[in-house]
Design a protein that fits this description.
The chain has ten helices and 14 strands. It is an alpha/beta fold. The longest helix has 16 residues, at 134-149. Bound molecules: S-adenosylmethionine (SAM).
Length: 293
């Protein structure tokens, strides 16, 4: 059965407000809700809610009620999402992926890199992170926007997997990056990927569960922390993660299903971080938070 997206096109500030209103109305129900930047210069954003086609009438009616007070004449648009072609999907792993300014590709696709692309070469292997998963792609997109707007002096990639996110940070800015993973195979693969991508110096790989290593104090506190793990461990480690964050620092979290995002945001608000934005990719969300905002 087909899926549908109902959305409104507004400014960034309005999209955040509408996201709040939608979550208040739809609460713990199983609808994915999200905001997406459409045009940075024109400050055009979409606030969307996703549902099955059969639920459209009821959700549309409730969406209209949500908008009634503050945005009575805002048109609600609709988009029917394509049914997933599982055969094509199984071939996706072979294709390069674009996210923000990055093109993540396998070694067989070097010729697909165009001038202006920030290319990261990762072959599917023993560690997670080829760019195809919604969480990796979401992190890459937010990393690109944070690096555009801010000037972090160092970064931590917690749960580095293939090393793709740490490599992305180094491709954008020549700052020291600590990349850690609980899995020693991942740190070995990530180190090898960094070498393949020509970003060896300033990038340290350490095997450690959570924050259990002296490396965090030696390299931190960090202006930017990226952690693509899962909602439950992220919630648990919120207080500890924040102690390794520099004042005013940015945090990018992923590995979170759309329905879990409020619990994650609440845990990090409780630890002193403000929500900057949430982006949605294939049912997964990536959350950008900032200390003291
Ligand atoms: C979803 S993958 C993310 C990989 C890569 N950063 C990306 O975005 O594609 C999560 C990674 O976190 C690691 N991991 C899971 N729990 C961890 C923990 N408590 N401490 C450190 N790493 C952890 C896993 O071994 C895995 O490599």
């Amino acid at each position: 059965m087909s899926e549908l997206r109902l959305f409104v096109t507004v400014t960034e500030r309005e999209s955040e407000d509408i996201l709040e209103r939608l979550s208040f109305c739809f609460g713990e129900e199983d609808y994915a809700i999200g905001t997406t930047e459409i045009d940075e210069k024109a400050d055009r954003w979409e606030a969307s809610i996703y549902m099955m086609l059969a639920e459209e009438d009821e959700v549309h009616q409730r969406f209209r009620e949500v908008l009634q007070d503050a945005y009575p004449s805002l048109p609600i648009e609709r988009e029917v999402l394509p049914d997933i072609d599982w055969i094509a999907k199984s071939l996706e792993g072979l294709k390069p992926v674009r996210a923000g300014r990055f093109l993540v590709h396998g070694s067989h696709d070097r010729d697909k890199v165009k001038a202006g692309d920030l290319a990261i070469e990762i072959d599917a292997g023993q560690a997670f992170g080829t760019g195809h998963h919604g969480t990796t792609a979401g992190c890459l997109e937010v990393i690109a926007s944070v690096m555009r707007a801010r000037s972090p002096r160092n970064a931590l990639d917690l749960g580095t997997g293939s090393g793709v996110l740490a490599i992305a940070v180094r491709k954008l800015r020549n700052i020291p990056v600590l990349a850690t993973d609980i899995d020693p195979v991942a740190t070995r693969v990530a180190r090898e990927n960094a070498r393949l991508n020509g970003v060896v110096s300033g990038l340290d790989f350490v095997t450690a569960p959570g924050f259990h290593s002296p490396a965090f104090s030696t390299h931190g506190p960090f202006d930017l922390i990226i952690a693509n793990i899962l909602a439950r461990p992220l919630i648990k480690m919120a207080p500890q993660l924040v102690t390794h964050l520099a004042p005013g620092g940015d945090v990018i979290l992923s590995g979170i299903l759309a329905s879990q995002r409020w619990k994650v945001i609440a845990a990090y608000s409780g630890a002193g971080l403000g929500h900057v934005r949430t982006i949605w990719r294939n049912g997964w969300v990536t959350i950008h938070l900032r200390h003291g905002c």
